Amino acid sequence: MQVSRLPFDPGPAGWASIVARGPTYPKLENDITVDFAVVGAGFAGLSAARRLRQLEPKSKIAIFEAREICEGSSGRNSGFMIDLPHNLGSKDYVGQIEIDRQQTALNREAIQFAQEAAEEYHLTEETFSIAGKINAAATKTGLKHNSDYAAHLSKLNEPCEILDAKQMYEICGSRYYLGGLATPGNGLIKPGLYVRGIAKGISQSDVQIYEKSPILSLKKFGNAWKLKTPEGAVEAKIVVLAVNGHIESFGFFRHRLMHIYLYASITRQLTSDEIKTLSGEPAWGFTPADSLGSTVRRISGAGGDRIVMRNGISWAPNRTVPISRLERARRSHVRSFKRRFPNLAKVNMEYSWGGLLCLSRNAVPVFGELDTGLHSACCQNGLGTVQGTLHGKLVAEFICGHRSSSVDHVLKLAKPVKLPPEPFCTIGAEVVTRWGEFKAGRER
Ligand SMILES: Cc1cc2nc3c(=O)[nH]c(=O)nc-3n(C[C@H](O)[C@H](O)[C@H](O)COP(=O)(O)OP(=O)(O)OC[C@H]3O[C@@H](n4cnc5c(N)ncnc54)[C@H](O)[C@@H]3O)c2cc1C
Q: Taking the CB of residue 347, how many other CB atoms lie within 10 A of it?
């Protein structure tokens, strides 16, 4: 099959732009044979390769990435590896108790896998840490979402702490927030450092990484697969597709996956005077109490002292978006930033970007064997840093015959259900999103 579309996202991957490039990897320029070919070097692809290496220490493993490491959504996200329920379809992230309990255990398995990788590859504390997070509320409705969420967490026996406006001010230096809900188990990454650090660690364990080597076609060839890149070819017994929503470009699950763009911007480095004016702690992470509000982070250390804003969603059935949509999102980031930090009104956004998320209507991944020797760890739904890590790890275990309750759990999940026909699906989704964003008000 020919791959119908290659990935392209608007704007630079901000997290990759603010830190040093790190190692580069070659393009595939010849014909090679490997045991395992992993397509895509995001959270899922890197985790699959790492787990395959652990389980099959002598095998030949190669990863093929269409762009540079960290240029896809793995370098465009907000860096929250959330352990707790985070149901984007619900205003306050809450789902059904048993499902949430199961999902939390799986999320933690992924976070632990990420943490072990961070330790093994000597990644710094600012690259990965279990820093917790705060659901920040700027409105009475947001406070109510937080208290509902806290009640749900207590049913799950999960600890959390309600913060008042003064405590929020002491953390972030802004009087914008009325309160917050702190939870301790969230992993916080600096994506530019984390993704490149994991790639470097894996490559040192003899996994071959090829950058700027998009897979253009995939063909069954006896009992193996042949993959073509613009300048080379790969023969592999086992292929793992770890391309998230781009799996649709490989011809799978058409009209069953929803592709959405999220947008973020990062300020220029704050000066020492601006840092004093801002006050608060040097690094923190706020997710919005209303799922359509703004995610805000303050970072320091590598890449400088900066603030990262994320809001805005657009539905993109073809996995592309006009550049004007990024411009609109950028204006929204500036507005949201100035509202929160009026004393930093002169600080501009240095980088703005969009990146893709893939959801299914019934919130299931595309996981497991699609054809003999062809496996998928795609469609991560709302929590791709964690779910990507999880599905990459589990698909490698499944391939190597290493069964566990987690592998069995994801294998038993339903397949993504059909979407309503276009253009009604996208129009309907856009209307619901715009209305939700309007109602989110000051949470944006
Ligand atoms: C602004 C923003 C904020 C976000 N914030 C968070 C957050 O805080 N927490 C969270 O959990 N999630 C967040 N996400 C979502 C998260 O980034 C993604 O869900 C996650 O990156 C998915 O991981 P993945 O490995 O499955 O896919 P990706 O990271 O998208 O990796 C897939 C890779 O496959 C490559 N590829 C595609 N086609 C081909 C091909 N033909 N050949 C070779 N390579 C190919 C792509 O270039 C890409 O690098 C956010 C996303 C955005 C855009």
A: 20
Phi, psi (deg, nearest 5) at residue 120: -60, -35
Separation of CA 242 and ligand 1 centre (Å) = 9
pTM: 0.97
Q: Can you give the pLDDT at residue 234?
A: 98
Mutate to test the pocket of ligand 1, among 2, 17, 77 (most ligand atoms within 8 A of CB): 77
User: Mind listing the domains of the chain with CATH numbers?
Assistant: 14-443 (3.50.50.60)
> In ligand 1, which atom is closest to the CA atom of 386?
11
Q: Which segments in the chain show pLDDT lower than 50?
A: none
Residue 177 has a CB neighbour count (10 Å cut-off) of 27
**Do the beta carbons of residue 28 and residue 230 sit within 8 Å?**
no
144 Cα: distance to centroid of ligand 1 (angstroms): 32
pLDDT of residue 121: 98
Per-residue pLDDT, 329: 97
Please give the torsion angle defined by the CA atoms of residues 318, 323, 329 and 331, in that order, rounded to the nearest 10 degrees: -170
Tell me: the pLDDT tens digits for 309-337? Answer: 999 999 999 999 999 999 999 999 999 99
Phi, psi of 148, rounded to the nearest 5 degrees: -65, -40
Contact by Cβ (8 Å): 66, 213: yes
Tens of pLDDT, residue by residue over 273-316, are: 999 999 999 999 999 999 899 999 999 999 999 999 999 999 99
